[in-house]
């Protein structure tokens, strides 16, 4: 540990800390910024580097259209069929992991029509609030992250998959999500990056996109600009209530704060005992995602695409091109699975004239914090006055970031939030 890092924690420890945020990913930094705007003083610490987790390698799509949760009717049967297909879009490792299988049992209990609808409504409320709030933050704070109100297109070559996808459209209409259905020839005429053979597409005009690494870097810049402090490489070792405050012991010093926010994403279950919330181990599992980033090909899609037959997301930035997605439940496995990375390229080759860029810049995996009901945990930790949670965002961390930050800031400040907090209350798992 660098001496300068210990000095920073020592100095903070001498101060009267107001709010301590654990986690410098997209949720933690957005929450820190919202709290600073509410007049609080904020310190952020992270065991690693700013944006070093799932915030880094995702595709950067901002998608209220993705409100329908993973825990859908029939999903367990699909996962079981794919268990022996290691490059399937959804893969559950067949080994014996008691914690994972307990989580899966809870997840399976949600795979019914009633719970699916409830989760979709809750997710959409936060996604829609975040979508509007993000555009406002980009404008008001001058966030430079290649944000574009681009929309997103779901593209199909398999007519059966297109027909199945349309079963969700009545729910999207009910939620108020705008979309347009295009036939294959019309879509191919609009999008020359695609090979012939498209049978149809669904265009979600309300979606948007950004470059996620720059967005996180900009949030960190703004936190510091508005008086917040960020200390990296500072792992949390324990939390203890301390009267009207909380004492946090870290690897390089001890801090006391009036309020503490846990925004540690997929690492939250690993901190369950450290922060005194053992039930978190049953509430959240890491869902491993993959992406490959390239230099930009000559011919790229006009808008972000979801190649639905293969569950591959395609996004483009000014100088880059990314293929991403997949969901793997294999615990905290640290291997970069070549077969699953290859599935991204194989899927892109089915659809795109130029499926990869001239140079590979990064081959990446990251763990997403998947809650049992696919709804994040945002609010006061059960049994604690000054401990708060902002975790469990699954695949939607970037898209839910601004709404999460504002919701938690409102709850901490005792203000009426713009999003009903009931569905996000962490007490539902305790």
Describe the structure.
The chain is α/β, with parallel strands linked by helices. The chain folds into 2 domains: 3-55 and 214-283 and 374-429, 3-Layer(bba) Sandwich (FAD/NAD(P)-binding domain), CATH 3.50.50; 64-112 and 147-208 and 287-367, D-Amino Acid Oxidase, subunit A, domain 2 (D-Amino Acid Oxidase, Chain A, domain 2, 2-Layer Sandwich), CATH 3.30.9. It has helices at 3-14, 26-37, 54-57, 75-81, 98-109, 113-141, 159-165, 169-175, 184-190, 212-225, 280-283, 338-351, 401-413; strands at residues 17-22, 42-45, 61-62, 90-92, 152-156, 180-183, 200-204, 208-209, 229-231, 236-242, 245-250, 253-262, 284-295, 305-307, 312-317, 320-329, 360-371, 377-380, 387-391. The strands form 3 sheets. Strands 4, 5, 6, 7, 13, 14, 15, 16 and 17 form a 9-stranded mixed beta sheet that branches. Strands 1, 2, 9, 10, 11, 12, 18 and 19 form an 8-stranded mixed beta sheet that branches. A two-stranded antiparallel sheet has the order 3-8. The longest helix is centred in the N-terminal third of the chain and has 29 residues, at 113-141. The mean pLDDT is 93.
